[in-house]
Write a structure and sequence with these properties.
about 850 residues; alpha/beta; 8-stranded mixed sheet; 6-stranded mixed sheet; 21 helices; 42 strands
Amino acid sequence: MVTWTAPAALWLLAAVPLVWLAHAIARTNFNARQRAIQAALRSLLLAAISVALAGPMISTSSSRASVVYAVDVSYSVSSAAIDAAAKRIDDLNAALHPSHFRVVAFGATAAALDGTAALRQLAHADPGAPGAAGTTVDRHGTDLEAALGAARAELATGFVPRIVLFTDGGSTAGDTDAAVTQLVEAHIPVSVEPLAPRSLGDAWIDAVDLPEHVPAGAPFTATVRIGSQRETQAVVELSSDGHIVGTQSVAVSKGMTPVAISAVLDSPGPHVLHAGLTIAKDPLAQNNTLAKGIWADPRTRVLYVEGTPASAHYLANALTSSGFEVTTRGASGLPATEAQLDPFDLVVLSDVPRTAIGAPAMSALAGWVEREGGGLLVAGGEAVFGEGGYRKTAIERLAPVTFERRDEPEVALILVLDRSWSMAGSSMDLCKAAAQAAVDVMTDEQSLGVLTFNDQFAWDITLRNVGKNREDIRQKIASIEPGGHTLIFPAVEQAYLALRTAKARAKHVVLLSDGRSYPDDYEALVTKMVAARITVSTVAVGPSADPELLRNIAKWGKGRAYQVADAKELPQIFVKEARNAATPGFDEKVIKPVVKTPGFLAGVDLSHVPALKGRTATILKDTALELLATDDGDPLLAFWPIGLGRTAVFASDVKDRWASNWVTWRGYGPFFGAVARALERRRPPAAALELVAGPIHGRARSVTISMEARDVTGRSRDLLRPLAEVRAGDQAAKSLALRQVAPGRYEATVVANAGDPLAVKLQDTGAAGAPGVASRIVLPDTAAEYRFRPADESALRAIATATGGAWRPGPEALASGSGDRRTERRPVWPAFMGVALALWFVDLVLRRVRVFEPAVARVLL
């Protein structure tokens, strides 16, 4: 097939008729035949020149193969592997007999070799010395982009291309993806043969993995990955700002060994974390260190409001040791306005009574969470449940649970009433009215008993179902008459004996007395009652009662103690106790936490979490996330986002009552630290700085500097003129203007020496706050080539797959198939120009020599 590079030149053929016209009107003495020949020659001459100027090309199909072998000779590849590659090339050539082949050796640079003999010579040369055949290959790095580019340049034009890549895949420079994309577009397959790394019995630091966010003062875990070619013992150190922040001795196995080291950065801002490896008889020291830049966020500020201030130190100390700045207040210490809450990132409400939180404080807390993105953790306790707690309040609306029970439990309630002489008159009447009011609020399925006492006890109403006996119970209560002295212990003991075998989920005793009693071992008795899951509340009426004894009984019995001066208060108290017994706000029993969804607790070791001793009853809302549950399936730790904020409820408490085993657990601090981190307010920084380092080309690489500018509400700040202070190595700092590329986003690109650290910080231009608030650093890895990882087979297989090459290719994979043909284009204009020159010479001859005339005529002329 013929193609033309400049077909417009063919228009010159239109001048051929003019040649004949010129000969027709010319006045020459040549005979007619010679003139015709001259015109024909000149027409052909013009035609040859026109065709030559049009640039004709002849395309022919070829199946001849051109094979280029690109062999990695960098320091990370063993000499034995390079020798094996040379033998493999010889074997492939012997089987293929390619029409054209070349060998390219590469490291940080690439060069063509004369053949496999030069490759073998290069394999055994000193790694820093010039290679074979006078070729210098920089072996202290690996640039796969340069290698593939050099291999492509060595392919013969018009031949079927084949590239065979021998490498371990550890590229330290260049953009491999860009090179592969170009080869895919050119339909050049790359087959891959992996090479084994150099084996020195060496160990090295392979990488340092850090959390995305590291708060100042908080312990964080840095994972140092150690590569080793032998089993040995090592010491790993982390240092920052000249101080050791973490160290660990570890047994290193052959291959990769991750080492988790806990460290703390005391101050917020930029830091350089240096990981160092100390190991005996290590043949190569330069790969035993690795530096990585890290940014420490400011400390999170926590307002901790505790209903029992004497126990606040447990959680406060745990959060402080986890890097939080904690302010502790009593139950009435919740701020009443959003402005007073604004300095904080998280509020913890622990066992705070609803009565201690005023309406303005409740409203401010809700607005701060939903509109300002604040975090709220509600910890359980007796004070938070039901109508007298957070039920149907703004806190319940914010929370991922409701403060109620899943179902109405079966209840057995015994009223133990003092009917001694001192209760005669209005006190006894009010006491009976109170008992009847308690009966009225109980459901048909619940059970009630009434036991009265003076110096004797009597069952006025044995424990029975309320629904079938409601009127009978009311009549018997109305018939109670006072008399005798006061003796409490036998009556309470009888209540215990009656309830211990009763079948009910909740068992409760209300003890009422207006006088003093003989001493006895009340604590032992009530302790047995609690062990049988029976709770006891007490009511002291009048000044003659023993308030200390009754308070102790309620405390030992896990109930409530009331002291009233006026018996008119009794009905209200009895109704409250009956309702609490019907739907008890908490369970005091051994609770084994069950992990439902690890979520943000994934980094906490929950395998040995201790049991809890109680919890507040709650019901999970439909869209909430349940992280922990009780062994009965009730929610223990629930979480959800609401508005711009996040809230969580821990149904047990955080102190030495229900969580007495937790406060001594090693995971107590990490557990609540993780919860607090998940809830804390995400304050958008005034300026978020990010550095993205591009691939290294030669000794240089480009670094993209990006800044996100936001106001306090998170909205983008536009039309700013931010300046970045850029310092490369020891050079003087330079200012660089960032241009806006998107709402709130500004960028600039700087090209720097890849071997120098590059530090960037935003200058104070009104966009970033104080100078140096936003600062980042890009650190070079000068020992990247000396981390002797195994061949990266996944990346190498990807190259072969993307380009259509083969993995570990045999001769049949490299041979040209019936569909493997390349078009060879050859220019033919030189032939036409040669014809034109020949015709021009013949034309010159015909101008001097007459033909087709008699000899006499030629002599006369």
